[in-house]
Amino acid sequence: MAGRFPQRPTRTTVRGGHVGVPTGAAAGIPRQAAAPARVRRWVPDGPLDLGLVLGPLRRGPADPTFRATPDGSVWRACRTPAGPGTLRVRAYGGEVRGEAWGPGAEWLLDQLPELLGTADDPEAFVPRHRVVALARHRRPGLRLTRTGLVLESLIPSVLEQKVTTDEAYRAWRLLVRRFGEPAPGPAGAFERPMWVMPAARTWALIPSWEWHRAGVDDKRASTILRAVRVAARLEQAVGMPAVEARARLEVVPGVGPWTSAEVVQRSHGAADEVTVGDLHLPGIVGWALAGDRHADDTEMLRLLEPYAGQRHRAARLILLSGHVPARRAPKMPRVDIGLL
Predict the structure, then answer these.
(1) Cα-Cα-Cα-Cα dihedral of 93, 99, 65, 207, to 10°?
(2) How many CB atoms are located within 10 Å of the residue 340 CB?
(3) For tag attachment on the chain, is the N or C end more exposed, with fewer CB atoms within 10 Å?
(4) In this structure, are strands 73-80 and 83-92 parallel, antiparallel, or unpaired?
(5) How far apart, in whole angstroms, are the C-alpha atoms of residue 163 and residue 168?
(6) What is the residue-wise DSSP string for 213-278?
(7) CA-CA distance, 296 to 166, in Å (whole number)?
(8) Domain boundary assignment for the chain
(9) Residue 289 in contact with residue 306, Cβ under 8 Å?
(10) What's the pLDDT score for residue 64?
């Protein structure tokens, strides 16, 4: 069952899913002049840190679908219900400016406030531990993103099952660049151009040897193939409560509690859906809240009970606090899938 194995021994969310976004003064654009973009301006109702809010959407520093640039912008290339689109987001002067290109541009701009956490309610969170309270005080711009997209979080989450993050990120990067399509608009002018992930039908047609070349074993590849065959049904889950959405996702063989939680945290902005089955998270939570580096899932959930309704936010704040036990066990070794 997915999510019950040591899947993320070096996962970047040990830092809580934060991407460094410079505070740029000049609104730069990649090398060539930008194509005409649709624009939306939006004023958030509180502090907003783009790196904290959008950081969980990045799958490694070389993710071809995500980019943070020196001018303070965050770029996303994604496949929307209206087609591929590129979104550039920049915050300055208390205002957010979104620019979008491609068939999915209008959809991306319509979703911009939810992407940046307008549906989230940080004020509903009441810290019960000093370490959590300090992390919240130091990160006032943390909001939980809601992408409104399921498959773009499900596929990379499946790739992260039972392997190191480096292996998973490499697989995502290779598959998106080989079978995706260039991002609309000026993102294609970056030194490393951005890409939109493949459509569901394209994922379904990837030959077995290409999965192997990307380092993806048959079990994970088969899970993705089963998921894309019912992609429309899975995308409908964005209109369901998070608990029901997880149940629908877990109908797909190979998608278990770990994977479904990782998805709805992003697609729904689910504040209470804490990840179970992670190799490190129980020990980190146990160490931060009780000094117990050997806590298991049961103990982690017990410690998070005071945050019912907000357990995922509490876990993220703990990760952001940096209050983690020193690593004693060796890193998980890479696996040659040819030996499986």
Answers:
(1) 170
(2) 8
(3) C
(4) antiparallel
(5) 7
(6) HTT--HHHHHHHHHHHHTHHHHHGGGGS-HHHHHHHHTTSTT--HHHHHHHHHHHT--TT----S-
(7) 25
(8) 12-18+37-321
(9) no
(10) 97
Fold of 12-18+37-321: Endonuclease III; domain 1 (1.10.340)
Q: Which of 218, 186, 213 is nearest to 34 (CA)?
A: 186
Place of tokens 């701009």: 109
Reference 91, options 107, 110, 115; nearest CA is 115
Q: Which tokens sit at 166? A: 């480096």
Find the length of the chain: 340
pTM: 0.88
pLDDT digits (tens, 9 = 90+) for 141-195: 999 999 999 999 999 999 999 899 999 999 999 999 999 999 999 997 788 899 9
Q: Tokens 């939109």 appear where?
A: 196
Amino acid at residue number 267: S
For residue 66, the cross-strand partners are 76
Centre a 10 Å sphere on the Cβ of residue 174 and count the other Cβ atoms it contains: 16
